[in-house]
From TrEMBL:
Residues 499-575 form the AMP-binding enzyme C-terminal domain. GO terms for biological process: long-chain fatty acid import into cell. It is a multi-pass membrane protein. One of its GO terms (molecular function) is long-chain fatty acid transmembrane transporter activity. Belongs to the ATP-dependent AMP-binding enzyme family. It catalyses: a very long-chain fatty acid + ATP + CoA = a very long-chain fatty acyl-CoA + AMP + diphosphate; a long-chain fatty acid + ATP + CoA = a long-chain fatty acyl-CoA + AMP + diphosphate; tetracosanoate + ATP + CoA = tetracosanoyl-CoA + AMP + diphosphate. Residues 1-18 form the signal peptide. It comes from Kryptolebias marmoratus (Mangrove killifish). Its main location: membrane. Residues 63-387 form the AMP-dependent synthetase/ligase domain. It comes from the Eukaryota. This is long-chain-fatty-acid--CoA ligase. The keyword Phosphoprotein does not apply. InterPro entries: AMP-bd_C, AMP-bd_C_sf, AMP-binding_CS, AMP-dep_synth/lig_dom, ANL_N_sf.
Length: 623
């Protein structure tokens, strides 16, 4: 008996010691294992679907949910509830119109230009039901960029929201010249060449079109095109396959969400965060989403209380706006338990939690077209993800040394990249392989190739270049540090500097342009700034430049600051030198060059005085 008790005591002591050792040396072990188990389950299901003759898509999942919970609210929009059955029937009617009246065929690409509203989803699903791929157009882009989007994705049909028809006035003749048919979500149209959908919809049947039209036997078939600035040039159509859509739709589930959650989506549906993660995730769970046409800081918490929101989607800028709202006694009176998004600064993160309560903020890192994703399932402040030995077995990525001055990776004597040490900042590269494919962009293969780095560590390998500088600490937490190259982020949008450069270069008095982003205290991302050389025989005209920027660039891409220079510095590879310009900022008291600032009241770029500069730094001037 005493021997048995001794054995039990020894076993108990051993287990206790192992538990203490695990807590001290591997404090995140079980949390990591449980989360990675979900990731592995999701990946295994996707791998199995490749072996089946028919792929179960996100749309198929929506049809299943509409049959399982037909009367459950799917979308709440401006006080109106749209059930799963409502959206299913309306998308069926639209599918019938697309098939029989618009005469769309399986495999065609259709462009969609709509603001956030339930009909965005109904049109999207209706097009998918007839087997069409859909190109989501950014509602902010202007004429030249908009025309370019059609050319690169091959769309010959445009569906436009009723409130955006007038925005086509300048390019409608060009669209018609290119044989692009335009259909508006209206019953009547003042434009003779713009067809209407709502009048056809009223007479349409809500009987489903044949399911064979939407069926696919390949999980890597493209089903969406989502436009991104990439790193250079005009917007690019990132190819989104069923594989990527299904991975994104599992995001909320991976973080522990259930069908009982109510998800608040204030982000634009033309971006992958709201459409793939937000709507796709809602469908996967069979949950309810509250869709906003546009984010409003003053309406955010009242909406959350009214609709009993439990999860919200964010970008860092959104959280900063909420922190800047006047404090009230109701700040912690809500049911929100989780936020899912990206770009949240540490200081804003801490202030947000202190003010609004213990909300689990789950950062998601990954570009629309990228083949790598980090998920901060731990909710640790200031990190975008978590890695460990098991994660590295599943996802092949590396951080390599990067020369900020030369704007290129550091190579060894054999021409290969060099990995950084743990804790050091490096350029994030993700290996392209069978388990992490890169589908690239529609159209030119050259655009896809530019995002790849080859012969990185050995001859013949290929890596996706994220363009982001990251660091991984000794506990495996990953932190975002900066962006490199020709892209920066402002107002939640990626700004391709070469696109802005090309458009500004059309102004007659500008000889040369170098566009880059500068940090402004208290703001997320970087504000646009352009260094200009004025033609010798002409002079700087702030009003003309303002008119040109407002007409041809979306608000987030317009340079806030102008710096006039005599000579442009170049890198050794004859690229514009940006690093020194970025570092020198926009302080008029420390720069000898003439500086100007965008002024919407005066409708001009006006001299940037020290007084204006101080008002920007103090956060008094609206940007």
């Amino acid at each position: 008996m005493s021997c048995s008790l001794g054995w039990l005591w020894t076993l108990a002591a051993g287990l206790l010691s192992a538990h203490v050792l695990q807590k001290l040396c591997f404090p995140y072990f079980w949390t990591d294992v449980l989360f990675l188990w979900k990731v592995v389950r999701c990946g295994a299901n996707l791998e199995l679907s490749k072996l089946k003759s028919s792929v179960r898509t996100v749309l198929d999942r929506f049809v299943e949910q509409a049959r399982r919970v037909p009367d459950k609210p799917f979308v709440v929009y401006e006080g109106t509830v749209h059930t799963y059955r409502d959206v299913e029937r309306r998308s069926d009617r639209l599918a019938g119109v697309f098939l029989h009246r618009v005469r769309l065929k399986k495999g065609e690409c259709v462009a969609l230009l709509m603001n956030n509203e339930p009909d965005f989803l109904c049109v999207w699903f209706g097009l998918a039901k007839v087997g069409c791929s859909v190109a989501f157009l950014n509602t902010n882009i202007k004429s030249k960029s908009l025309l370019h989007c059609f050319h690169c994705c091959g769309a010959k049909t445009l569906i436009v929201g009723s409130d955006l028809v007038d925005s086509l006035d300048g390019i409608l003749p060009s669209l018609l010249e290119d044989n692009i048919q335009v259909w508006a979500m209206r019953s009547h149209s003042e434009h003779t060449m713009v067809h209407t959908l709502l009048d056809k919809l009223e007479a349409a049947s809500d009987q489903p079109v044949p399911a064979v039209l939407r069926a696919t036997n390949c999980i890597k078939t493209p089903n969406l095109y989502i436009f991104t600035s990439g790193t250079t040039g005009l917007p690019k159509a990132a190819v989104i396959t069923h594989l990527q859509s299904l991975k994104a739709a599992a995001g909320f589930w991976a973080f522990g969400a259930t069908e009982d959650d109510v998800i608040y989506i204030p982000l634009p549906l033309y971006h992958s965060a709201a459409s793939l993660i937000g709507i796709g995730g809602t469908i996967e769970l069979g949950a309810t989403c509250v869709l906003k046409k546009k984010f409003s800081a003053s309406q955010f918490w009242p909406d959350c209380r009214k609709h009993k929101v439990t999860i919200f989607q964010y970008i860092g800028e959104l959280c900063r706006y909420l922190c800047n709202q006047p404090k009230t006694e109701l700040d912690k009176d809500h049911k929100v338990k989780m936020g899912v998004g990206n770009g949240l600064r540490q200081d804003v993160w801490r202030e947000f939690l202190s003010r609004f309560g213990n909300i689990r903020m789950c950062e998601v890192y990954g570009s629309t077209e990228g083949n790598l994703c980090f998920l901060n399932h731990m909710g640790k402040i200031g990190t975008v993800g978590r890695s460990n030995f098991l994660y590295r077995l599943l996802f092949k990525y590396d951080l390599v040394k990067f020369d900020m001055v030369k704007d290129e990776p550091v190579k060894d004597e054999n021409g290969f990249c060099q990995r950084v040490k743990r804790g050091e900042t490096g350029l994030l590269l993700s290996k392209v392989c069978a388990t992490s494919p890169f589908f690239g962009y529609a159209g030119s293969k050259q655009l896809t190739e530019k995002k790849l780095m080859r012969d990185v560590f050995v001859k013949g390998d290929a890596y996706f270049n994220t363009g982001d500088l990251m660091a991984e600490d000794h506990e495996g937490f990953i932190c975002f540090k900066d962006r490199v190259g020709d892209t920066f982020r402002w107002k939640g949008e990626n700004v391709a500097t070469t696109e802005v450069t090309e458009i500004l270069g059309l102004v007659d008095f500008i000889q040369e342009v170098n566009v880059y982003g500068v940090e402004i205290p208290g703001h997320e991302g970087r504000a646009g700034m352009a260094a200009l050389i004025v033609r010798p025989d002409l002079s700087f005209d702030g009003e003309k430049l303002f008119e040109h920027a407002v007409r041809d660039l979306p608000a987030y891409a317009r340079p806030l600051f102008i710096r006039l220079q005599e000579v442009m510095e170049m890198t050794s590879t004859f690229k514009h030198q940006k690093y020194q310009l970025v570092q020198s900022g926009f302080n008029p008291s420390t720069l000898s060059d003439r500086l100007y600032v965008l002024d919407y009241q005066q409708k001009s770029y006006v001299p940037l005085t020290d007084q204006i500069y101080q008002s920007i730094i103090r956060g008094e001037r609206k940007l």
